[in-house]
Amino acid sequence: MSHPEVHGVVVIARNGDRTQSWQDPVSYKAKGTTSTPLGEVQSHQLGSFLRKTYLDRSSSSHIRGISTDLVDLKEVHVRVKVGSEGASVFDSATAVLQGLFPPNEKNRMTLANETTVVAPLGGYQYIPVETVEPVNDRSLEPWTDCPAFQERVKKIQNSDEFKKKEQDAQKFFRTLKDFVFGMPTTMENMYNLHDYVSTQLIHNKTYAHRLPPTYIEQARGFADWRESAIFGDSQMNGIGNIASRTALSSVLRALQRIAFNDDPLQFMLIETTYHPFISFFHQTQMVKNHPELKAIPDFGSALAIELRRAPPPDAREFLRFKFRNGTDSDFQTVHVFNHHEDIPLTEFIYRLENSVINSNSEWVRACRTSSATSWLGLPESASDVTNGNYMDIVLSMGLFFLVMLLCWSGSQAFKRYRRRNYIRLGNEEVGMPTAQVVNYGTEKPRLTLSS
């Protein structure tokens, strides 16, 4: 095959270093974190690396026809997960974009009075991003508030394999107690243990000097095993792969847009946390040939999906996958579905189409939840309505109208009450007397009137 040209790229990036994160071992709801200067540097380095790879005309992976100096907002789209770890993910996306499209003095304009104005900070380029909040859009955080996923977590943690792994870790847990200061040393809590040790090792000099050798490697190994078991499902459409099943909806739509000649989109960035990486590697069967991917990716990691078009007479679209773990390595080409070369776009879509979750209504069914508070109550397409995918929303709307009817009935009853119990004197309403039962000691009750 001749060298195909890169026509566009979808990049899934993990946020950079941040303060300690804690997430519930079952629901995976996490407390807020903030990015650190180190994390911002990591993400900026990733952006610079992507610029050198895809925007430098001398690069073999240069995206054909893309604007390189000043960003063309029609060619670039950015989606940012702002649920768990939202602040650090958003800051990371900003830093990536700063490295991808650095300040440029060409970012200027001339006013009517012939005054030239250069954008702040030497021509800083402001690139809008689409923030994806789980309250409205489940595509980048589908694992929280998902009963089916929580059932899976509990099932795994009750499995013999999990219990055996926890037994194997007991010796390590006994020695780790002195370095986690009261945190539960269990396999169930392994992600939080690793995150605490890792965060302290990076940011706490005293802690770093005390931590014995191999402790961070052991903590990382057990955490990798647990998260791979939770977020990696052997079934392509299994609930364990839900993190990538929803994210792939954005990926496939972007690839189809890039492949369409009349659509200007050429670069899409999805900034997120570690969860969809693990699921994607399992769902696309990358882990079969690359078992090292059964792990939590480092901060600043990126998976690039390149759409390459072969020269005529073939002119088909192929996908090439490249993974960069952290900021200290180069892209490594990895293969999906046991391919040993680029995969046709059509085959990739065909293999995945029955497992991808394309809408919030499909997420509701996959999670086996009837909650109507996690999505907007409007159809996302006409086909969703005709296919009957919005039964839950219809029921919710019915409940809404029932409440409105009850409120209307109550207001009518109140009006009738006023007509019966009030008389109008001039411009003033006076309450009519009402009957009360009064009982004085041993006397028989008698009626009195009171205003």
From TrEMBL:
The keyword Iron-sulfur does not apply. It comes from the Eukaryota. InterPro entries: His_Pase_clade-2, His_PPase_superfam, Histidine_acid_phosphatase. This is Phosphoglycerate mutase-like protein. One of its GO terms (molecular function) is phosphatase activity. The chain crosses the membrane at residues 393-414. Belongs to the histidine acid phosphatase family. Keywords: Membrane, Transmembrane, Transmembrane helix.
